[in-house]
Design a protein that fits this description.
- Belongs to the prefoldin subunit alpha family.
- InterPro entries: PFD3, Prefoldin, Prefoldin_subunit_alpha.
- One of its GO terms (biological process) is protein folding.
- Binds specifically to cytosolic chaperonin (c-CPN) and transfers target proteins to it. Binds to nascent polypeptide chain and promotes folding in an environment in which there are many competing pathways for nonnative proteins.
- The chain is of the alpha+beta class.
- It has a domain at 34-83 and 123-170: Orthogonal Bundle (Helix Hairpins).
- It contains 3 helices and 4 strands, in the order ααββββα.
- Helix 2 runs antiparallel to helix 3 (124-180).
């Protein structure tokens, strides 16, 4: 049986931070001409990760708001299927904490708001299938966002450690130069 590895080593949506193991070798590379330049590049990389984090957190909040609405919609459709051919009495939400009593005539169709000023009529079975698929998709997206955020935390840590290692390397280099003088 294949072992599920929850910790990712790479992510196709987020660039990986490379850990600087040997700072001396790293600083000898031609693109690393000065400590300030390297620290600036690492800081830019850190800022990019902050931007990714902001976008992922925004997406997660949107999904967290969307899921309860989808589940309530699915529950209502299932109730309508259960009481098919009967008039339903319900409390209808007008706005936050404001309800009114409603009598819903027996129907085999529902209108679903799809967003972007689009509403379509579906029969109860098709509506159940559509909403169930949307719930599954939102749940999968939520898991992916959480995995991306976990991966991103590792990239933050790696970048911050790299910045500290390069800075400390520079401090030691300056101290050694002072002692030689």
């Amino acid at each position: 049986m294949e072992k599920d590895n929850s910790k990712q080593d790479s992510n196709p949506r987020i660039p990986s931070a490379i850990f600087v193991d040997d700072v001396d070798k790293f600083m000898e590379k031609s693109e690393n001409s000065s400590v300030e330049e390297v620290l600036k590049r690492l800081d830019e990389q850190h800022s990019k990760y902050k931007f990714f984090e902001y976008n992922l957190i925004t997406k997660r909040k949107r999904l967290q708001l969307q899921l309860p609405d989808l589940e309530n919609t699915l529950g209502m459709i299932k109730t309508m299927k259960l009481h098919k051919g009967q008039q339903l009495k319900t409390d209808f939400l007008l706005s936050d904490d404001v309800y009114t009593k409603a009598h819903i005539q027996a129907t085999d169709n529902v209108y679903l708001w799809l967003g972007a000023n689009v509403m379509l009529e579906y029969n109860l079975n098709d509506a159940t299938e559509l909403i169930s698929r949307n719930i599954q998709l939102a749940t999968d997206n939520m898991k992916q966002v959480d995995d991306d955020l976990d991966f991103l935390r590792d990239q933050f840590t790696t970048t911050e450690v790299n910045m500290a290692r390069v800075y400390n390397w520079d401090v030691k280099k300056r101290q050694a130069a002072k002692i030689k003088q």
